[in-house]
Amino acid sequence: MNTTADASRLAGIQPGDTLPERFFTTDIIQSMLYNAVLWNAHRIHFDEPYAKNVEGYPGLVTAGPLLGDWLHQCLEEWLGEDGRITAIEYSNRIASYIDETVHSGGTVTACDHATGEVTVDVFIKNEAGDVITPGVATVRFTDA
Amino acid sequence: MTALLSEELLSTIGRQSEPRREIVTRRDIRKYAVATGNRQRKYLDGDEAPPMFHVPLFWDVVELDQLTPDGVSIDSLLPKFPLEKAMAGGLKIEYLKPVYPGDWLTATRTLTDIYEKQGRSGALIFYEVVMDITNDDGELVIREKTTRILR
Fold this sequence. Notes:
The structure holds 2 protein chains of 2 kinds.
Chain A (H helix, E strand, L loop, with lengths): L2 H9 L6 E8 L2 H11 L9 H7 L9 H16 L3 E9 L9 E12 L4 E9 L5 E11 L3
Antiparallel strand pairs in A: 1-3, 2-5, 3-4, 4-5
Chain B lengths: L6 H4 L9 E4 L2 H10 L5 H4 L9 H5 L27 E10 L8 E16 L2 E14 L4 E11 L1
Antiparallel strand pairs in B: 1-3, 2-5, 3-4, 4-5
């Protein structure tokens, strides 16, 4: 852990800073692995006729917590080893579907240079530009 | 008591699940990191658990005959609600300590609130479930609050 580097990293952070965006496209294989890891057998994730005809979705649905995980990855890839996520609040507003490309991003809204606590608005947007998973996270830079 | 929520239903607030104790393994971390598209080496190698790893760790391992034909399981913590169509829910997660392979974690879920609100197209029922995850020293590691909306 390099204290000097961490301190200078935090010193350069201010409200309005944006996080690097990342694009995600989940194919049916990744979706299968994710739901298997969860032990999630809901047919809307792997049975296309069921998802469309019974539950009325336009396609196979991406599992909601996967979108939540991507918010965390967006934050952690920006933080690197300089800090940790201490809290996050998010909601799944709009469904996402297999083979759809979505992207994550965020904006710093508050920064306490004394404590190292930084608040970030994060999002997952779909191709139409709608925010499908909005969130607010608190991160703490170490060695503040 | 409200139009939708009987005393009997409201009396289930405070209901708690049996604590569930699970071990964190390198292999399970690696599978989760790969399946979520994680790009950080420490997670792909299973050296540390990424945030949200508690989601698969404590997802109920239900047996086949407990799944409905739709492939879902019934959450035994919840009472029968007079509204059943689930809408988008929200999550609030606090991370207090990092999680590493070899850690034993214990999760206890509590139904902490049930309330009714008037939505634009009718009544809505909200309920909240808090999952507290502690380590073997009794320290809180993660607290997750789920809010779900029924219409």
